[in-house]
Request: fold
Amino acid sequence: MTNAGIGRVAVVANQVNPPEQTKPLEKQSEKDHPVLPVTHPLDPLTPLEITATAKIVRAYSGFDTRFDAIEVLTPPKSQVRSWQPGLPWRRMAWVSCFKRGELGAYNAQVDIAREKVLQWDHVPDARPMMTAMDIVNIRKAAQGSEKLRTALTKRGVKMDTEYLQIEQWPVGHTHDFPNHQVSGCAPVACYLWERLHNLDNHYAHPIEGLHFIFDRISCEILEVVDTGEVPVPKSPVNYRPGLESPSPHSTAEFKPLTIMQPDGVSFTLENRLLKWYRWQMHIGFTYREGIAIGDIRFDNRPVLYDARIAEMAVPYGVPHEPHNRKCVFDIGEAGFGCNANELQLGCDCKGAIEYLDAWVHTPSGKARLIKNAICIHEEDCGMLWKHSDHRGPPEVRRARRLVVSSIHTVGNYEYGCFWYFMMDGAIQFEMKATGIINTTGKTHNAEKWGVEVSSGVWGFIHQHLFTAKLDMAVDGESNTVVECDTLRDPLGSTENPHGNAFYIHETTLASEKQACRSRDNQKMRFWKFMNPNAKNSMGRPTAYKLEPVHSVTPMAWPESSVGKRLACYYKDLWVTAYDQHQRFPCGEFMNQSTGEGGLVAWTAADRPLTNTDVVVWYNFGLHHAVRLEDWPVQPCVSTGFTLHPTGFFDQNPCLDVEPEKDLHSVKVKGHCC
Ligand SMILES: [Cu+2]
Reply:
């Protein structure tokens, strides 16, 4: 994707939850959309708390306030750990906002009940996240630009909303764009596509050689750049039923494949406290990051205090303007939570499904409902374990897993976030990328940088880089991170006379600078997060491990302006000492960031990490060389990671799982084996 970027979202015609669908609090029906009560310190703000916070901040600021973030202020971990159900606590909000028409942002901490702003910080150079308002302003400005209208007319494209797709991309921070970056503007690059009709896939019709730069502060177009006419591809390529499809194929031969749980589900959800099998966790949600899972326990033993996807970036590998600016931080610049889909039962989610709604804020500080934003269900997961020998019947156990998921539409791409909780104690995260590639027309030397997916339509090479925040709490907060390399002594040496021997060598990552690590496939490297104070039956520290199997190397030169913004992605693993305020691994204000802040800055302190409260930041991703098969809509491709228990249990924790025989399973008639 992302391709698309921030703004992208907002401008897309059929975007999920566009601004006009905003449902202010006063219009919500309690019956249709019951609001969960606040029962846990990590609970997201309720719609009433969102609007109350906005009101407090607006009164305090005294200016026309627009909101980037209104969310629950992350409480100190010690307070959450010492809290007991039923005990009261102060509901605090964290706010990031800005003055309409002015560069810079303000961060605030708000005591909601006391209606007080407790902290108020001005960040003069910050450029806030893109918002739904930008789209409206961009379209309005575009309508008033004679230069743009003339350039479109020259290409035979109508200005009307039905026929013209404008997508706003964060402009990035590139060498060719210095003036607008320092002159008090907040520029965005606006790219153009043509639609043949309202439901047409506009990505089949890129308007190459024409784009414009819009300033979010003055709400004016700074420049229209027309570098020469490139014929707009006119052949329709669609994916919706009833429209043109390049390879229609029926699945009518498919017989029903039904998932049934006639006796109901095996999990319970009390407000946001989810329990299944031996797992329990708190399901949170933020405007920026989406799902945030807190206080994850197995058999009531802590494993993770906080797990979320904290940032992502999509750098493109094209050298020429304007496409060289494309490097979008889809979480920090656009937001995952605010772009969460309203999931559809039986389509997005199949089986017996529990949903959680999400309440997010609008730029003006109202509460907006995203119904069914989080899907919770359990699913069959094949074989759990098996063994057979000649002395008795085989022993086999079936696995199932708990799934907590959401899907986020950011412009042209969809990102599906799937957290899996396994019976053997493993935690898995899968990111499914689907949607539509970002397309351009024929550009100089396009064959080198991309693939022509249909006549005159190009998709350029790019990467999807993700950062998982994993606040480890293996049997408690005091953890140590160990790097595990597999080594072999020289052939013929005393320890390896026959050359077959190899072993694990462990190195403690004792400080933050030592813990900036890269994968090493030659050494089958993995990392272990262990608790030196909690021992298993063999006297070894209990631990979880992570193997870097989906690592991606950023291909932008690290010294380049794009590379500097991607600084944290040149390492696969970072570890920091816990600090509740260190949340955003690439920096807080990502729009036109320069690479300052985040992990690179935090770890400069080189804090000690041994036997203390550590937070792991793991990078993974997709290296996307575009395929014809990605067009016109991309089948899901996956990336992710798994946390496996290693010595956390004394033996296979699933020995006590009872044998299961599914009485609905049948032999296919006539099948001969
Ligand atoms: Cu891609």
Remarks:
- The two ends are 45 Å apart (CA to CA).
- Residues 1-30 have pLDDT under 50 and may be disordered.
- The longest helix spans residues 47-61.
